[in-house]
What does this fold into?
Amino acid sequence: MAVSTPVRPASVESIQAHPYLALLHESLHRRLQQEEDLRLSESPPGQFHVDVRVSEHWLRFSFTKQRITPRPNRALIGMAIATLSTAFLVAFLLARHVSAPVRALEASTHKLATVGASAEVPDSDIRELHNLGRAMQAMANEVAIQQQHQQVLLAGVSHDLRTPLSRMKMAIGMMEDDLPSTVRQRLESDIAEMDLLIGAQLTLSRAQQVEAAQPISIQTVLQEWVDAEQALSPIPIRLRMSADLGERAVASTALRRILGNLIQNATRYGATEVQVVVRKRQQRLFFAVRDNGPGIAPELRDAVFRPFYRIDASRQRATGGAGLGLAIARQLAETHGWRLRLVNRAKPGCAFWLCMD
It folds into this structure.
């Protein structure tokens, strides 16, 4: 509409305080091309007017401050923050939705590797994870069946082999006067070696069976075990442990067999002293068997845990063992979810550490 009285131009501060006014002024100025054909005014404060000359008249467009209160820059920043927040929230929910069944599947995989088919794989509403879990469960069941067949086969072989071995021992005893002493000793040594191999193979197979954990007093039981080993050992065995071990649910037979094999390994291979060390860190128990023997070369530290591997291959099995002591110890540890490893020592000798979560 036409105006007959001049109005107060909008102040520079008002335009700077409202970037929208500056944008409006710049846009209209580019279109009108004449500065005198455009006026931007404020009257009263907070009431803005845009006057545009058309021919001989002025057209006025009025709007209040409330119409431009949301500043474009702030609105854009707010929209960006809202968009990013929504994206992060959606990504977090999706990641949680996917990672939760993946973590459950990971835990079940670890259990399947240790306890076999007795661990159930959790179901998931994600098709790929559901199919993967079912396949893993089927594989675990097949492995468990194969292990059972293997144990039955080994038990049968043991029975079938030990029966003729017993007859051979009896026959050698009956023929004692007719055989030269060297021949008799050789036959007895061969029979003892075969019997040792059969027993070691059966022990390694049984090491794959999970033992139920029972609460025991760590200090009391360890002291009894070390005393029993000391009674049979020609070298001193010292026990070092803290006083806060308390009671713990442990597969005690498996633990005793592991520690016993490690102690016997140190005794057999030249140690003159063995230390059994027990430490507790938070909820973890650490057992160590340390000796001052000749030690093991770094390149052989993984090989010594392989079945039938012996560093000194010239040793007779009847006196030097079948090479299954460390293999049985590691198999028992892995079956029960523990970790057994050989670590470096500053002094000569070996240090085997067993970590129990």
Summary: Residues 127-174 form the longest helix (48 residues). The chain has nine helices and ten strands. The radius of gyration is 42 Å.
